[in-house]
Amino acid sequence: xxxxxxxxxxxxxxxxxxxxxxxxxxxxxxxxxGLSALGAFVHPMRLTFVEFYKNAGFTGGGREYKPLxxxx
Length: 72
What we know:
The protein is an all-alpha fold. The protein has helices spanning 2-10, 17-54. It contains two helices and no strands.
């Protein structure tokens, strides 16, 4: 929507506006498509790695979790 609005406002420039508008439309929509594809790839991969490493038999070297208590 923003890409379309920007391109339509640039197209009102005399003589070369239509060319700049078309270039902006092509570049803007390609950028949006690329970022969407990147997000669709990165988030499932992140979850795959988180789930794999959590269940891969790694042992932590920390201490046991002891939640805070209210003193009586």
